[in-house]
Amino acid sequence: MEKRNNKKVIIKVSNLSKSFNNNIVLKNxxxxxxxxxxxxxxxxxxxxxxxxxxxxxGILQPDKGSIVINDTEMVNLPRNLKEKLLLDLGITFxxxxxxxxxxxxxxxxxxxxxxxxxxxxxxxxxxxxxxxQLGLQPKILDLYPSEISGGMQKRVAIARAICGNPKILLFxxxxxxxxxxxxxxxxxxxxxxxxxxxxxxxxxxxDMASVCRIADKVILIDKQTISWTGTPKEMFNSTNKxxxxxxxxxxxxxxxx
Length: 257
Ligand SMILES: Nc1ncnc2c1ncn2[C@@H]1O[C@H](COP(=O)(O)OP(=O)(O)OP(=O)(O)O)[C@@H](O)[C@H]1O
Ligand SMILES: [Mg+2]
Description:
By secondary structure, the chain is α/β, with parallel strands linked by helices. The protein has 2 domains: 3-88 and 169-254, 3-Layer(aba) Sandwich (Rossmann fold); 102-166. 35% of the residues lie in helices and 26% in strands. The chain contains 10 helices and 11 strands. The strands form 2 sheets. A 6-stranded mixed β-sheet has the order 7-8-9-4-10-11, with helices on both faces. Strands 1, 2, 3, 5 and 6 form a 5-stranded antiparallel β-sheet that branches. A hairpin with a 2-residue loop joins β1 (3-4) and β2. The longest helix has 17 residues, at 180-196. It starts with a strand and ends in a 10-residue tail after the last helix. Magnesium ion (MG) binds next to α1.
């Protein structure tokens, strides 16, 4: 396995470009996610953050470039192999994407049930053990996603992502639309999920408080490419104009005393 600074390279994106007709969204994106690292991706609305994530997991095909996950090239990987590899990842989408026809507990254990035989009692028990860390009541387990609030759906989607302790976590706006208390609960969970299993995470977020809480490294996408990289602390000291626009509304002393 490829290493950098003595750490395994978990995801390596090289020269990735993606356009939709005449709309160039991403141009020559290069970055690596190392083992044990929590990476935050920031950028204006419409800058291509979700498109980048969808390319990484193969929902979208890049026009150019390479995406290697755990030493496997994802671009042009046959669908069955791609799906198998994705079962080892914990992913949340920006807009939930829960299975409407499955109850919440069935949604949460979906990947685990795909990998091993698990009866209903065990399944519900497993789902319950996860949702209690997310401040959700057991009664939601037997309901369908349409029967719970948007913020609850978001947490069910996070529960589904972390079920089975995957070592690679990819979150698209996991705290948007949540109240600040629930938001910081989710941040804590992401941090714990990364640290306890020695995993790695990529989190797309607009929330600078979240960035400070969860990220070791920050990537800014601007003008179709990665225009800045640094630690959260470097972000607050940066003279980069775009970075300053992002952090302007925030008093960094709250986070870095
Ligand atoms: N399937 C698609 N077909 C055509 N254009 C698309 C598609 N998906 C995304 N785009 C375009 O790609 C650009 C980037 O979209 P993307 O969803 O990645 O933005 P984002 O950075 O995630 O924004 P936000 O912060 O609002 O979620 C937008 O111009 C969008 O219209
Ligand atoms: Mg998005």
